[in-house]
Amino acid sequence: MADHPSRIELISSTIEDLSDLFRNISQPAYRSRQVFGWIHCRGIADPHKMTDLPKDLRRNLVDLGLSWPAQVGEVLRSEDGTRKLEMILPDGCAVETVLIPEGDKLTQCVSSQVGCSVGCTFCRSGHAGLKRNLTAGEIAAQVHLARVAHLPGERLRNIVFMGVGEPLHNVRAVGRACELLCHPQGLDLSTRRVTISTVGIVRGIDRLAQMTTGHVALAVSLHAADEATRRRLVPGARDTIADIVQALVRYPLPKRRRFTIEYVLVKGVNDSERAARQLVHLLRPIRCKVNLLPMNPHDKTDLLPPSEDQVLAFQKILVEKGVSAFLRRRRGGDINAACGQLLSVDSKGGR
Ligand code: SF4
Asked: Is 96 one of the annotated active-site residues of the chain?
């Protein structure tokens, strides 16, 4: 799949890339740090507003097309404080990103692709298949442009790649976006506060382990401990559960860190006591905690969440067997911003 777009996208550029570019237009190297800081620290991509740059460089940057590769469309606010923003991309595609407040701290859920090829049966995002990958700049722009929906005093604390798309199917751009967002001259976010959530793409996990962004947190959406159930819930997953577990076992997980295993509970599919015991057995070799998420119903599926009693019974089995298991609170359900409810739009307006 070809990435989009083909023109130089300055937002995706590192300080080193900018230095190379500026050398070619006879600008000193330190200008690259200034420009990077304007974009990735102050969140400003309009060269006219970069007031400490000389006028000729500002004009160069305009000519080179420096601007955000996205603009904010509809903004919805949930009664629980969650906000969902539509990000409209230059080719007419759109994705969604979500701000989830916890006191004065914000977690932002970002998208990595327009659509998704994995097609998890409980998820709205993958319903229409994959349209294209996002660029690193389009991913970073979601974070910077969403500042318009921050409330006074709120601070971005966590970024989770749990929006539309499978991040490890776009690992190069996702890795670059993490690099940009965590850069000390950018937002300077701790890599510990960035989580990449994957259905378990073994090649992607291995690649992530080798990247400088390898110390970001990794969440793996298993949703089942047996192959048949997993194939039903995650039809686009190519790697077996056993291969995913092996990839996690060899992953260079820093000391005192754990993987997160995401498990969306679906009524009558993966919520039995037997399924819980299988999960306990499967997770023995891995340092992890489990997040249990009762599925969020939506208009593209007949699947339903289990009863609260069933969810608690499932959790109890895990905890009694020594697995840290937490129930994730549903956020933003009234604006379709909860897990599995996000949508993307292709360039023809299809959802
Ligand atoms: S849950 Fe994630 S991987 Fe599965 S279809 Fe939705 S976006 Fe894709």
From this structure: yes
Give the residue, out of 116, 231, 301, with the most ligand 1 atoms within 8 A of its beta carbon, to mutate for a pocket test.
Answer: 116
Max distance between CA atoms of the chain, in angstroms, equals 68
Q: What local confidence, expressed as pLDDT, does residue 2 receive?
A: 40
Q: Which residues of the chain have pLDDT under 50?
A: 1-7
Q: Are 240 and 227 in contact (CB under 8 A)?
A: yes
Q: How far is CA 152 from CA 25, 43, 89, 139, 148, in A?
A: 40, 16, 27, 24, 10
- For residue 289, give its domain range: 71-335
Q: Is 93 a catalytic residue?
A: no
CA quadruple 334, 293, 209, 161: dihedral, nearest 10: 0
Within a domain: 1: no
pLDDT of residue 8: 62
How far away, in angstroms, is 139 Cα from ligand 1 center?
A: 17
**Exposure of 131 by Cβ count < 10 A (0-12 exposed, 13-18 middle, 19+ buried)?**
buried
Residue 115: predicted pLDDT: 94
Domain shared by 102 and 241, yes or no: yes
pLDDT confidence of residue 128:
78
Closest ligand 1 atom to 162 CA = 2
Ligand 1 interacting residues, C-beta cut-off 6 A: 116, 118-120, 123, 125-126, 164-166, 199, 340
Does the pTM of the predicted model rise above 0.70? yes
Do 56 and 154 fall within a single domain? no
List the CATH number of the domain containing 47: 1.10.150.530
> What whole-number distance in Å separates Cα of residue 83 and Cα of residue 149?
7
Report how far residue 232's alpha carbon sits from residue 240's, in angstroms, rounded to the nearest whole number: 13
Cα separation, 298 vs 344, whole angstroms:
15
Q: Look at residue 124 in the predicted model and tell me its pLDDT.
A: 85
Output the domain CATH number for residue 186: 3.20.20.70
